[in-house]
Amino acid sequence: MENKNTWEIYTKKQMQECDDFCKGYIDFLSEGKTERECVKIIVDAAKKAGYKDLDALIEKGAALKTGDKVYRVNMNKAVIMFNIGSEPMMEGMNILGAHIDSPRMDVKQNPLYEDGGFAYLDTHYYGGIKKYQWVTLPLAIHGVVVKKDGSQVEVCIGERPEDPVFFVSDLLIHLAQDQMNKKAATVVEGEALDIIVANKPVKITDKDKEKSKGMTAVKKGLLDILKKEYGIEEEDFISAELEVVPAGRAREAGFDRSMILSYGQDDRVCSYTSYMAMLDVEKVKRTACCLLVDKEEIGSVGATGMQSKFFENTVAEVMEMCGEKGDLNLRRCLASCTMLSSDVSSGFDPTYASSFDKKNVAYLGCGLVFNKFTGARGKSGSNDANAEYLGMLRRILGEDKVNFQTAELGKVDLGGGGTIAYILALYGMNVIDSGVAVLSMHSPWEATSKADVYEAYRGYCSFLNKATKI
Length: 470
Known about the structure:
Helix content: 25-40%
CATH architecture of the largest domain: 3-Layer(aba) Sandwich
Strand content: 15-25%
Number of helices: 14
């Protein structure tokens, strides 16, 4: 069975639509490099599309009816959206679920130190990364600093042309004989991923010595800058969430401009296509839901991850406002849902062909990807979708001529990635992993095909409009 290349079946009009859609996606990637930034962008777009704040409606004692659109934010790092359908919610919803966190480096709570004439920020890497890929890159710092008085300072340094950037140093090749003999996992140790943030000492006068308490000159100079330009003191790092990410905008890739190269496409490619599909569907029979969560890269843990009760609690609130009260109705709803766990799949890379099963791998340009199961070796930790569910999806995508392919994440004994699918499947609903093929996944710069991005959006629209209970 041969996959169809989407570019070969697109009309000129579809190619233009694809290109136009991806311009918005490139902006999203460039401006939403953290969970908080993504949530802000999504909420702003949802409000413009007529979505109302669920918590504000709850406070007013409002009810919900067919056609109403609401959203709810969880700690500024996860968001859920609902388009209320004409059918009762206890008969199930059509859910798109993705995650908006990506591998990166997080600044520690006591990070600032000086050594050898450099000021550093100590970091702890987040998610699965190849540590050696993060050295000698221009890096930016994004996040928020919350001061003792409760005021907040939003931080985004390294993205504008006039901004400074930061970096992790590497050992020069002339002295790297021992380093080059190490295994890739230890060429760069986790504790070596500290970013260089300053090198200029300031003169500490006799008058300043007592106030500086022996502080080294470069560190003091940096603290002076932080205080003057951002109103931040060293103690404020304790209550800060600062993420270190590759600096620079997402870019078109290839002479033919057929691909997109960017940080964070796992899983913001599926987040963008999911919420855009959600905004663009209008009247629906089954209530449509888009769930974009945090912490997937470290096991979906915590209050903003999929394992929290945020999703379940919010569905209960919505059903209450729709007049469908009671725990039993909630359980019936959750068990009757159909869901696409919108997450990326590994794209075939000819340079590393031996790691893939060529018959069961996603190819860039061949459309939306379905992973019937994921998991490592023996399907451990996998959600395994039912054949009946796949049959229904094939039918509705066929009706709308959405190009799709099926895949596994690498060879059987090499292991595979996890998604949020298995968590939602615990409710008894039908769930399958469905997303976009990514080249160089979890690297600082990942690649996708514009055609796959657009087909994912088209497929998600079809799903929200046409999926039914199995």
